[in-house]
Amino acid sequence: xxxxxxxxxxxxxxxxxxxxxxxxxxxxxxxxxxxxxxxxxxxxxxxxxxxxxxxxxxxxxxxxxxxxxxxxxxxxxxxxxxxxxxxxxxxxxxxxxxxxxxxxxxxxxxxxxxxxxxxxxxxxxxxxxxxxxxxxxx
Length: 138
Description:
Layout: E1 2-7, H1 10-26, E2 29-34, E3 51-55, H2 61-73, E4 77-82, E5 91-94, H3 102-120
Helix pairs in contact: 1-3
């Protein structure tokens, strides 16, 4: 069970946060990659039907859809998180285009996804294992 998330620019931060939430709540290996680094190893991880979530914003649309095409050519199941549907998407999560607020808007469906994945696995998303309410700084 692997999920890969790809973002460019501000959407890379969204991909990182989404991967963290999926790991913490559903215990599925989720890893985020910067779109510009995709050719340096991550594409080798993609197998037939590997879920790859792509975060699209107006400023990175052409390049991130190129990343989606590269992943799709290797058999990935492409989930697009964007304001407009692209033909490359196997599944589309529609979000409004909000400029610099896109990362905040795009993380919301990822939090719901993490929750739903946990529920599907019979896990309690309100009680993730090995997480504390506070962090001790030494």
